[in-house]
From TrEMBL:
Pathway: Protein modification; protein lipoylation via endogenous pathway; protein N(6)-(lipoyl)lysine from octanoyl-[acyl-carrier-protein]: step 2/2. SMART domains: Elp3. Belongs to the radical SAM superfamily. Lipoyl synthase family. This is Lipoyl synthase, mitochondrial. It comes from Riccia sorocarpa. Its main location: mitochondrion.
Amino acid sequence: MQPAVGRHVSQLSKSAARLFGLAERGFASHSAGSLAALQERLAKDEPTLKDFLNAYDISDYSVEVGTKKDFKPKPGWMKRIVPGGDKYTNIKAKLRQLNLNTVCEEAKCPNIGECWSGGETGTATATIMILGDTCTRGCRFCAVKTSKAPPPPDPEEPRKVSEAIVAWGLDYVVLTSVDRDDLADQGSNHFAETVSLLKARKPTMLVEALVPDFRGNSECVERVATSGLDVFAHNIETVEELQSVVRDRRANFKQSLDVLRMAKGFAPAGTMTKTSIMLGCGETPTQILKAMEKVRAAGVDVMTFGQYMRPTKRHMPVSEYVTPEVFDKYRELGEEMGFRYVASGPMVRSSYKAGEYFIKNMIEADREKKKSSVEASA
């Protein structure tokens, strides 16, 4: 374990107790506007880890990660599902036929089988990765290959992507990309064109764009935020204190927050913003709470939490496996803070089928409510 991560891991027990031990003694009765009272209590209360465990009948905050000398198997809740099924096979074949990339494959997502096959909701989703498969950055958690000078983007890609997605009959699609610091527009025009073509071909389709930070360029953010998308997503990835440990040096917490804040201001009313945090990188619960507060203050509507999984031995090691019960507590806390939706679980990823299905229903309900309001006032 690297020293920068290790320093934070040593704080876990005390911070977990501080954050969660207060819940049994009145946090559940807090309203969404009582964050000041919550912060005050966090500063004063010093419950023990035993209080936390007893209050929620949770065996532990996390499970230790094994080493070469002291091997430990992954906990049962981290087992991957082997992908399969007709929908999965058909989508994979179509992707190869059109030479398209998905972050599902490139990032070795554990939910690829569930999302591509439709899972419990029956709605098949895929996260298409545009602008090629080579990133100009080198975040220490990411499995996508990197280069200072990736191949130029395919000018026909927006058309190919829009045609393929419409042909699949998807109701909700996520577009994402590698970072393209080598391009003058950071790839924002590619995003905007793809979204516009999708909406032109199928206006009822809901489109989420999970974008890079565009190096904080407001013109790039505005271009994508006003392209017709329904959800503008950008991931902060980890807590503020671990940004330099986890992400490329060109990324940082403030820049990411600024992108989310700008997107909320540029996008038409009703457009949702979304971000995600990985757990198990060495963060403390208190740091997570602080990050959540800042994200919510930036106007973000949706937040997801998932367990970091080391893609290869060359990447940043996993600090710990956070238990499903603790993920549930972060979800409850996020809902209490006022996020419209929080997806939180070990296998949750920023592009997450169950979350997308919920967001789809939420957006449609918002539109129906707005339509009824307009008709009533007419």
